[in-house]
Write a structure and sequence with these properties.
This protein is globular. It has a single domain, classed as Ganglioside M2 Activator Protein, Chain: A. It starts with a helix and ends in a 6-residue tail after the last strand. Helices cover about 20% and strands about 50% of the residues. By secondary structure, it is an alpha+beta fold. The structure holds 2-acetamido-2-deoxy-beta-D-glucopyranose (2 copies).
Length: about 180
């Protein structure tokens, strides 16, 4: 019994330490408008709060209402340049906000929703913001392999790409665990 307790006590701080050893942070963010009469980015910036916490702030001004959004997302992983990795999805943004019916998109949404003003239904117009968003590994259902990633999102309004937001991030697995 006593031995078990000691093992438990040893294991717990260790687990805690292992969790915090994961690095999951953004390294670059690029926002681009393809149609400046419709979408204007006022801000698209990362800010390092501490060594392993980097916050993203985006201000996007929609100068005309958006009633119809297709979100095209690709996840790439670096290996001699960025190569497609695992997922490529395309979904109706207006419908997703209503139904939240795709597992992968829900993960991204869970990471993101508290930090954004886009948690309402269509139409979207005026200033859309992401405020002090940062990545939290505890929100991932499963770790991903150590590496450098790029999440590319094309925002398609009225059937044409109008803007792109590309976010680069690093994930470093808990190596002591494997
Ligand atoms: C650019 O945005 C304006 C305003 O919404 C729109 O009328 C126009 O069709 C868009 N241009 C393209 C190429 O989609
Ligand atoms: C959207 O986010 C705001 C601020 O975090 C929150 O107060 C509001 O309840 C959210 N709305 C929905 C529909 O989730």
């Amino acid at each position: 019994m006593k031995r078990l307790l000691i093992i438990w006590m040893l294991a717990h701080p260790l687990q805690h330490y292992q969790c915090s050893a994961v690095i999951f942070k953004m390294t670059n963010a690029v926002c681009e408008s393809y149609n400046k009469t419709w979408v204007e980015f006022g801000l698209c910036r990362l800010r390092a709060v501490s060594r392993n916490k980097v916050c993203l702030n985006v201000d996007a001004n929609l100068l005309y209402p958006v009633h119809d959004v297709i979100v095209k997302a690709r996840l790439l992983k670096r290996a001699n340049g960025y190569k497609p990795w695992l997922y490529s999805v395309s979904f109706d943004g207006c419908q997703f906000i209503r139904r939240r019916n795709n597992a992968l998109i829900r993960i991204v949404w869970e990471l993101f929703k508290e930090y954004s003003t886009i948690n309402h239904t269509c139409p979207y117009v005026g200033l859309q913001q992401v405020k002090n968003f940062y990545l939290r590994s505890e929100k991932l259902p499963t770790p991903i392999p150590t590496g450098e990633y790029l999440l590319m999102i094309d925002w398609v309004f009225n059937k044409k790409p109008q803007a792109a937001t590309n976010v680069y991030f690093t994930f470093v697995e808990d190596l002591k665990d494997s």
